[in-house]
Amino acid sequence: xxxxxxxxxxxxxxxxxxxxxxxxxxxxxxxxxxxxxxxxxxxxxxxxxxxxxxxxxxxxxxxxxxxxxxxxxxxxxxxxxxxxxxxxxxxxxxxxxxxxxxxxxxxxxxxxxxxxxxxxxxxxxxxxxxxxxxxxxxxxxxxxxxxxxxxxxxxxxxxxxxxxxxxxxxxxxxxxxxxxxxxxxxxxxxxxxxxxxxxxxxxxxxxxxxxxxxxxxxxxxxxxxxxxxxxxxxxxxxxxxxxxxxxxxxxxxxxxxxxxxxx
Amino acid sequence: xxxxxxxxxxxxxxxxxxxxxxxxxxxxxxxxxxxxxxxxxxxxxxxxxxxxxxxxxxxxxxxxxxxxxxxxxxxxxxxxxxxxxxxxxxxxxxxxxxxxxxxxxxxxxxxxxxxxxxxxxxxxxxxxxxxxxxxxxxxxxxxxxxxxxxxxxxxxxxxxxxxxxxxxxxxxxxxxxxxxxxxxxxxxxxxxxxxxxxxxxxxxxxxxxxxxxxxxxxxxxxxxxxxxxxxxxxxxxxxxxxxxxxxxxxxxxxxxxxxxxxxxxxxxxxxxxxxxxxxxxxxxxxxxxxxxxxxxxxxxxxxxxxxxxxxxxxxxxxxxxxxxxxxxxxxxxxxxxxxxxxxxxxxxxxxxxxxxxxxxxxxxxxxxxxxxxxxxxxxxxxxxxxxxxxxxxxxxxxxxxxxxxxxxxxxxxxxxxxxxxxxxxxxxxxxxxx
Lengths: 263, 434
What we know:
Largest sheet of chain B: 2 strands, antiparallel
Number of strands of chain B: 2
Shape of chain B: flat
Subcellular location (chain B): Cell inner membrane; Cell membrane
Distance between the termini of chain B: 45 Å
Shape of chain A: globular
Oligomer: heterodimer
Radius of gyration of chain A: 18 Å
Structural class of chain A: alpha/beta
Number of helices of chain B: 16
Distance between the termini of chain A: 9 Å
Pfam families (chain B): BPD_transp_1
Number of helices of chain A: 9
Largest interface: A-B, 31 and 23 residues
Helix content of chain A: 25-40%
Strand content of chain A: 15-25%
Membrane topology (chain B): Multi-pass membrane protein
Domain ABC transmembrane type-1 (chain B): 228-422
InterPro entries (chain B): AA_ABC_transptr_permease_3TM, ArtM/GltK/GlnP/TcyL/YhdX-like, MetI-like, MetI-like_sf
């Protein structure tokens, strides 16, 4: 994995971590059948934090953030997102999902709807926003991700990078307080990774709370305020990016960093 | 080693292709004579087509249109061409086409099935061509299921009104109870209320209203129904009702609720495991044994129910195939935006799953439409049953080809239209490569 250079200066004026807790995970365990995927996860994320979760494949990092909006069910422990405790109650789950935006590796846009319809669907049906208002907001966010001219096309007619930016805009249209990114650049050509990362950086600059599973270490170094390293379903090390990259403590982290940054 | 270095200084311009690659000559070269083997195959095929057509075309066009019996037909053929071989006797169609279309439906009431058919086409328009037709027509579509039986069977107007009232009552019960109790309980009780209304109360209400205010049109008995009209009637009902039932069954089969799942699986596998003809015999003979004596359960209604259930089981499997073809990410995308189960199904999953299943769905439609001819075996005079009845007449004894050619043409027109519509729909729903 390369360390993509981020050329521009990042505006840090609004990137402030508040004392308000956005996500609190205590003693969380998850099994797939007999396989123990997540082991005793404890994590508190404050409002405005930008966290990058790194780790080898199969370490449970995607599963962790998918548990936060109940795409995966956890068996033990407590997850509280934005003041709502994640339980089996469908009302709570739908409430959390509408407050938490999620961006997937494979975009998961709806191919039978236009870009604009993709962005207005959830606001109209879940938030009951009037159509006009939803469309105005969708165009605002499409402009923000720099593809307003594609609004009437279908996802299949866009490049991967454009699709991922639409996916980000679609999430933003729900006005989420927290954004989850599940390897947002892993399915993209190198030329397109940058445009998606730029969008994510802009989001961070506006003070969005973000949890990103990514292999983009350049992004982690420059944007994150905390890097979490996971292996075998547990959090092995977490630190500020500077310390994490320059002075890793655990042997496992050192090995991982040497492998992904080695050449 | 500077030999390998190469830099293009000027990009090449596009050039027109050689004449042998484009136009008619290019097409013929590519598609008919692209090599000696293909050229021979082309010539053999052309000869085969000529051979078949040279037999059929004269049979169709050098034919007798006006005669009162097969014997008279043959006399005319001998007089005109000197042979009875290779000439069609369309006189039988000329003589009996109304009967083949309408069966024994009273001829002064032919306007009713014709009006029902015209209304059907108008009612279908907003569904089939949603973007070209004013959506106000959907009111007619909603009223059609009650209007059509009234036109076809006639009788008192209170019957269809009472049937429609059953839906209103069920909806009322559901909306009131689903707010006070739970959604599922409200749904169950709403359906229960509708069924109780139809089976128990509706009869008294219709009787009472009819004695107070007798409005109605001349009644037609089910045994007078027949001909191609019967095929369309059974086909439209089976197709129209089996699609929604099929969707529900397909969703039920994928459900996490164990009892719902196994009920759906059991139903689908049972119905698919039994030939349609068996189900039709059950409808015509066995059902009477189980029903309380004196129940007048219309034979056409029984056949309609069986055909609908049969086609719904196939539909469910076709749609399940469409559901299985959807990537998991679509469900996750919908979930992550906070859409609930029914919203996700209606807005995201079903539009895509149904689109994928269009060829299979239309095949099932065409299949069930052609299967309506099986009702001739249980004694209904559909168009096949009528062809036997026509042959039983001494005037037309021994005539086969002309009748079956006519029947074939009728079915072909309808089935081919469905097939073309499905292709149009697939093209319309095409939203770029995925």
